[in-house]
Amino acid sequence: MATAWTLPDHPKLPKGKKVAVVVLDGWGEANPDEYNCIHVAQTPVMDSLKNGAPEKWRLVKAHGTAVGLPSDDDMGNSEVGHNALGAGRIFAQGAKLVDSALASGKIFDGEGFKYIKESFDNGTLHLIGLLSDGGVHSRLDQVQLLLKGASERGAKRIRVHILTDGRDVLDGSSVGFVETLENDLSQLREKGVDARIASGGGRMYVTMDRYENDWSVVKRGWDAQVLGEAPHKFKNAVEAVKTLRAEPGANDQYLPPFVIVDESGSAVGPIVDGDAVVTFNFRADRMTMLAKALEYADFDKFDRVRVPKIRYAGMLQYDGELLLPKRYLVSPPEIDRTSGEYLVKNGVRTFACRHGHTDGTSFVDKVIIETVKFGHVTFFWNGNRSGYFDESKEEYVEVPSDSGITFNVKPKMKAVEIAEKARDALLSGKFDQVRVNLPNGDMVGHTGDIEATVVACKAADEAVKIILDAVEQVGGIYLVTADHGNAEDMVKRNKAGKPLLDKSGAIQILTSHTLQPVPVAIGGPGLHPGVKFRSDVETPGLANVAATVMNLHGFEAPADYEPTLIEVADN
Predict the structure, then answer these.
(1) What class of enzyme is it (predicted)?
(2) Does one domain contain both 378 and 481?
């Protein structure tokens, strides 16, 4: 059935107001204490939104079932958060899709598995991905089920190429994950399956770069996984991880690449012609670059040296626009009719330009992001789709990130530059919606550096001020929110909420996202004076934001969208 793209007018809210949508990455709401970097930081702008009119500030859920994840023990992430913010509905997400496909066995009946299975008789099955139970990019139990299912369906030789985590889970937890996997593989060997770990390395140093930030990360992985070459060689993976972790300054995220070798010193599992490869991460952003290296015949990002003829499938398809990879084990959520597409299609027809033009070209969407979050307010917001809906109505601007350093070294990142581009877009009069992602709280929060994260939060707050001042100047409306928590809690806690200590009595730093709710604040001189947050929306989450934004533009949302967060009082 063809989509009816025309949105009804909102009965009480006018069209034509300029709307700024600001997403603070990793900015949740938690109890104030010394480990809440948002609380410790000087954030006068966000404080004023929170402590201003109570009917213009509220919290929404940004994790678990509210963003399509399997359970409320699953922390949110940028991908599912921006999917929900943009789609206006809740779609079963990565982990959940894979869980149901594994539980039903459907994964083993699909085209993707049938394709890789053709290599089982004469080749090796290679599994590459993040080994942890963090649930953001992958999950250990899924890998275990995949190993079991593949071996029961004829895989005789299996090699696992592990990437250690320490970012979505505690640093040091890698050893336990490797021991668990080694135990599973030894049980497979007892059943006559030649199953071993073949290589490894830390996720931030080996393989899992994103947005083409640093191809040398992918090359280090390629050399170990495909060529069987790495600076460190070990007889087994537990010894490898323990030894490399013992080096000064070492941590799970940045372990150097290693290969496992046999008695003669030869790598036990390079990828060769006739093999099958599965990248088992379900989240796209940090697998896309490896997927290109594995799949593209025409590839110039680094010298691959040897390009084996393989059967390759992703756990999911990582980029629907690029159709990358071509084969996958689990079909992605079909996210259609996103708010961005609706608004662009309605703008062409129904907005009058602020400058009095009547040619119907008023609704234009300008999106500004820093490279590390480039996909977030474009690709993920638009339902895992790259590119424009209508190039004449949209402009996407990328602000390059600092490369070659960890984000705690320059925690201000490019927040001011992003905000200035947003300000200029608003003041230009060309755009009706300006959407930005400010990555500081998340990217610096992931480093575990509390002092730097405090600086990062202050920088993000200063950026918000620049944008809100511009909204004020153009008589516009703002909606400020976040995609998930991170910077608001930087310490592991016990059941009572007290900080956990390690053996030496130091606090255990939390580098991952959190389960905390995130704020939504609305305001600006263009906001109808009767607008306030509703109190009757049951467990509101990020998906309720899309209808809210449509209302601020003067439209009613489609009937199947999650309900708007706002209502208009008559007085």
Answers:
(1) isomerase
(2) yes
| C-alpha dist (Å) from residue 190 to 137, 186, 195 | 30, 6, 10
- Do 82 and 209 share a domain, yes or no? no
Q: Is residue 395 part of a domain?
A: yes
Say whether both 286 and 344 belong to one domain: no
357 annotated as belonging to a binding site for a ligand = no
Query: Pick from 296, 315, 330: which residue ends a domain?
Result: 330
78 is catalytic: yes
- Asked whether residue 284 is marked as a ligand-binding residue, the answer is yes
Confirm or deny that 4 is annotated as ligand binding: no
Q: pTM of this prediction?
A: 0.76
CATH code of 546's domain: 3.40.720.10
Strand partners, 9: 555
357 & 506 share domain: yes
Last residue of a domain, one of 330, 346, 376: 330
Domain count, the chain: 2
Scan for tokens 């400010």, then name that residue.
438
363: phi > 0 → left, psi -120 to 50 → alpha, else beta; which? beta
Q: Per the annotation, does 283 bind a ligand?
A: yes
Tell the burial category of 104 from Cβ atoms under 10 Å away from its Cβ (0-12, 13-18, 19+): exposed
Q: Are residues 203 and 341 in the same domain?
A: no
Of 167, 248, 244, give the one whose Cα is nearest residue 208.
167
Residue 220 in domain: yes
Helix locations, 246-338, DSSP H: 288-295
- Give, for all 571 residues of the chain, the pLDDT tens digit: 678 899 999 999 999 999 999 999 999 999 999 999 999 999 999 999 999 988 999 999 999 999 998 788 888 888 889 999 999 999 988 888 999 899 999 999 999 999 999 999 999 999 999 999 999 899 999 999 999 999 999 999 999 999 999 999 999 999 999 999 999 999 999 999 999 999 999 999 999 998 677 899 999 999 999 999 999 999 999 999 999 999 999 999 999 999 999 999 999 999 999 999 999 999 888 999 999 999 999 999 999 999 999 999 999 988 765 789 999 999 877 799 999 999 999 862 322 111 112 222 234 565 666 666 556 767 888 888 877 888 888 888 888 888 777 899 999 999 999 999 999 999 999 899 999 999 999 999 999 999 999 999 999 999 999 999 999 999 999 999 999 999 999 998 998 999 999 889 999 999 889 999 999 999 999 999 999 999 999 999 999 999 999 999 999 999 999 999 999 998 6
Q: Write out the H or E segment, with its range, that includes residue 21.
A: strand 19-24
Please indicate, yes or no, whether residues 64 and 201 belong to a single structural domain of this protein. no
The reply, when asked if residue 153 is annotated as ligand binding, is: no
The catalytic residue among 71, 78, 266, 535 is 78
Does residue 13 sit within a domain? no
Can you tell me the distance from the alpha carbon of 522 to that of 20, in angstroms, rounded to the nearest whole number?
A: 10
Residue 11 lies in a domain: no
Do 347 and 272 lie in one domain? The reply is no
Binding site annotation covers 373? yes
Give residue 251's domain range. 95-330
